[in-house]
Amino acid sequence: MPPVKSRPVDKYDRRRDELAESALLTLGEMGYARASLREIAGNSPFSHGVVHYYFQDKTELVIYSVRYYKARCVTRYDAVVRDSESAVELVEAFADKLAQTIRDEAPMHRLWYDLRTQSMFEEPLRAAITEIDAALEAMIWRVVTRYATLAGATPSTPAPTAYAMLDGLFQQALLAYTTAGEPVLDGLAAQVRIVMPLLAR
Amino acid sequence: MPPVKSRPVDKYDRRRDELAESALLTLGEMGYARASLREIAGNSPFSHGVVHYYFQDKTELVIYSVRYYKARCVTRYDAVVRDSESAVELVEAFADKLAQTIRDEAPMHRLWYDLRTQSMFEEPLRAAITEIDAALEAMIWRVVTRYATLAGATPSTPAPTAYAMLDGLFQQALLAYTTAGEPVLDGLAAQVRIVMPLLAR
DNA sequence: GCCTTCGCTTGACACTTGTCAAGAAAACTT
DNA sequence: AAGTTTTCTTGACAAGTGTCAAGCGAAGGC
């Protein structure tokens, strides 16, 4: 049994994180449906049985993993927001970061969209997905409001709208990147340069 | 064996369509990964073995089905485009239709996003998805250019950008509709009223 | 009226899946 | 050093998967 009241909760949690990290590798590569626990364990230092020692079931592992990942993501553009001193500079830095994260972490983003879509079919995923999506919306909204401020304008849409549209852009870019690779990313940056001015006036 | 050179291709194809129709029911309800061939056949007048009589494998059935469905969809807004006589009228009719199709065909749209996402993990899906996505982009572009004309303006983004953004809006609405239901749809219409003017100026 | 082809069902196959119990190994306690 | 608890492995289970071969009734040609 997992230690119910033991002291080294940190040790226990560190293993969970370790498992989550391995799980993310496999999930990102194969997607939610095709990543079996044996495959996940295979890409980890452990055997397949260990998952049920640290997690109740596959769903809990997946949710824990994606939370674990997205916790780091929602601050991705904070430096951009903080350091940019003009609207143009912010747009450039933002566009760069967007392209860069597709380049560096495409599997993770694929997984995110996979899980978000699966949440429409599997109720147990919904709570976590909704929460993370809200955090992402807030992250994007910080960018947009900061842009508006720097441009001496006000946002032309509410936060959910701005997020939905930029997310649509990002998702299309990710999709295209999957088949066409690198060249797509310039297009994404170009799109962002066109769209951001529409979002504040 | 399936009839290789027989005359009644129509009969053969009609069965394929029938199968596709049944498959769409199950796929829309359970999603791509969880819809087994037995389940699909269970929601049809046939037994589970018949699938391999009309289709080579599951992938072919799924692709055929989603093509079958989307073929009818890509004309969804053509009447709106044709009949609207002012920019405002077009926006209203477009927003209405968007909300209506979520109300009426949410499972189909969920399936579409599911498959589009899966195509990032499974190469065999890509060709069909790419093709359909292009058709959807064209469909949306007809709406946007018509709007621009009626508004005496020109589109402020290229077609892929406009599509990506409106698709993002739609997807977010579908997601919210899945958990919150009907009330979400008014929000979608409101968003469309805000966004369309941004897309042409 | 036989015989071939077509349309479909049935039942099996090989394999994968999540889950869990039993117990080995390691770590810690005393 | 012995005992206890934690950690992890192994092997099995039942259920479910896509696929396909064997066969059955009906249709249609001769």
TrEMBL record, chains A, B:
Gene3D superfamilies in UniProt: Tetracycline Repressor, domain 2
Record's signal peptide: none
Keyword Transcription regulation carried by entry: yes
Pfam families with a match to the protein in the record: TetR_N
Record key words, sorted: DNA-binding, Transcription, Transcription regulation
Source superkingdom: Bacteria
DNA-binding annotation, residue ranges on this chain: 36-55
Limits of the HTH tetR-type domain: 13-73
PROSITE patterns: HTH_TETR_2
Matching PANTHER family: HTH-TYPE TRANSCRIPTIONAL REGULATOR BETI, HTH-TYPE TRANSCRIPTIONAL REGULATOR RUTR
Official protein name in the record: TetR/AcrR family transcriptional regulator
Taxon lineage: Bacteria, Bacillati, Actinomycetota, Actinomycetes, Micromonosporales
